[in-house]
Design a protein that fits this description.
It comes from Pontibacter cellulosilyticus. Keywords: Cytoplasm, Dipeptidase, Hydrolase, Protease, Serine protease. Belongs to the peptidase S51 family. The protein contains seven helices and eleven strands. By secondary structure, the protein is of the alpha/beta class. The chain has a single domain, classed as Rossmann fold (3-Layer(aba) Sandwich), CATH 3.40.50.880. The strands form two sheets. Strands 3-2-4-5-1-8-9 form a seven-stranded mixed β-sheet. A four-stranded mixed β-sheet has the order 6-7-10-11. A hairpin with a 2-residue loop joins strand 8 and strand 9.
């Protein structure tokens, strides 16, 4: 597969504007492209598809990329088939995946990505790039017919990964505990992607980008830490 992906934990970090912290990597991903198809399906309320798309236009168009929302097209499938690049933004992962299925664009996205079309996701858009949405932090506010996601990579991602806070009196499960529970019933690796970090995937190479290390979980093994710049392409063939 000619993967060309940028999977970002979050669209905004503290003290930065929308996508500002990922500007260099976004420009590298979209090098040679002039337009981006934005899919605003993840937001269940509080912001319209038009307003969400306008926010993305405000960020990307000064960098030289024209943005259109998929809802502006008569046929979502045709829009995907003709897109130069796709960006799926954050919100609620269950809402997003339900809308991807309803729009019948799961397979068209998969086919385009196999042929090298750039794909960018943030938060929920990163979640759905994985094998399933079983490691999302979001509440299941809608019923989805399947947890199977776009499967652009054969592992799961946990965006917004949080470490336990030293000295905290919180008695609930940690994120690491939740992922261990997932691995009792599921085999695929999970990447805990901390805020500000992202995965740059080109072909069979996966490089961790950003200011933080990532915590990687394999079933029945101790979690591993990988620093920015490391090649973690083994995840493509872990099982």
């Amino acid at each position: 597969m000619s993967r060309n992906l940028l999977l970002i934990s979050t669209s905004t970090t503290h003290g930065t504007g929308y996508l500002e912290h990922a500007e260099e990597e976004v420009k590298a991903l979209l090098d040679g492209k002039s337009s981006v198809l934005f899919i605003p399906y993840a937001r269940p309320g509080g912001i319209s598809h038009n307003d969400y798309t306008a926010k993305v236009k405000e960020a990307l168009e000064p960098w030289g990329f024209k943005v259109t929302g998929i809802h502006e097209h008569e046929s979502p499938v045709k829009a995907v088939q003709e897109a130069e690049a796709i960006f799926i933004g954050g919100g609620n992962t269950f809402q997003l995946l339900k809308n991807l299925y309803a729009s019948k664009i799961i397979e068209p996205i998969q086919e385009r990505v196999k042929k090298g079309m750039p794909y960018m996701g943030t938060s929920a858009g990163t979640n759905v790039a994985g094998k399933s949405i079983g490691t999302t932090n979001d509440m299941p506010i809608v019923h989805v017919k399947s947890f199977d996601a776009l499967q652009l990579v054969p592992f799961n991602i946990n965006p917004h990964y949080l470490d336990p806070i030293e000295g905290s009196t919180h008695m609930g499960e940690t994120r690491e505990t939740r992922i261990a529970e997932f691995h009792h019933l599921n085999r695929q690796p999970v990447v805990g992607l901390r805020e500000g970090s992202m995965l740059r995937i080109k072909g069979d190479r996966i490089e961790l980008k950003g200011p933080h290390s990532a915590r990687i979980f394999l079933q029945s093994e101790k979690p591993m830490e990988f620093k920015a710049g490391d090649d973690i392409g083994f995840l493509l063939e872990a099982y």
